[in-house]
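Quick start: read one record
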Amino acid sequence: TVGVMTSEGNRDISLKEYMEYTDEFGVDSYVTLNDEVPLTIGKRRGKQSVLRNEKWLKEQLETAKNKEGIIANIQVTENQQLLQDQLDLINQNASKLLGVNVSGLHLGESPKQREELLTTIFEAIPENLVRFVTGPNSPSEVLDSIRLGADVTVCSYPFLLAEKAYCSW
């Protein structure tokens, strides 16, 4: 099972339930389940996260009714073999995917590490896949992600600014 944040708090659901929800709601696209951790998490825990994400992606590719709308998660890692294994899985299934979401960045790594990882990932996946980056926390981080090849960024800073009644032009 995985923990899902809801308006009432966390709730554990199974992969089967998640897939049933995507079918029931008739979504056009959805992101595969993700165990997002920062690069600094440690080798053992980082490897577990990558392997869990791969497992979930494989299961969702096998069971999804709407295979055209799958956005696959890649968990960043400094372990080159684990990163390459994820990229190989993405490339082997590229025809079944809408895009790729890069998770685990903007969580304390250096800008240099982030740039190297995004460059490696974006250069390795087919150009027709939509590239998502989760977590930019400032306008400069959003622009850097776009400069490196992201098509979409998923970030919370606009909401944080609105909550504080900030305005920018």
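The first strand starts at residue 2 and ends at 6.
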